[in-house]
Design a protein that fits this description.
Blueprint lengths: L1 H12 L7 E8 L6 H16 L9 E8 L4
Parallel strand pairs: 1-2
Length: about 70
């Protein structure tokens, strides 16, 4: 997972110390990845940053995809 964190490090480095960051994951075959998958991440980010429902707003939201194995 180090490589994945390296890709978001510049974004996280810009945040103030103590900032809250939401992490959203999507597990599936995603074969192929669709606009709906991307829209789900975009909506999750929007809601997390806005503090939707009973959630406090997060300063940032990052997402990761975890693919099912071939078996």
């Amino acid at each position: 997972m180090t490589r994945e964190l390296d890709t978001v490090a510049p974004l996280l480095d810009e945040l103030p110390a103590g900032a809250s960051v939401a992490v959203v994951t999507l597990l599936g075959s995603l074969c192929p990845i669709t606009r709906g998958h991307v829209a789900a991440f975009e909506e999750a980010r929007r809601q997390m940053r806005a503090g939707s429902g009973r959630l406090e707003p997060f300063q940032e939201c990052i997402g990761f995809i975890s693919l099912n194995g071939d078996t």
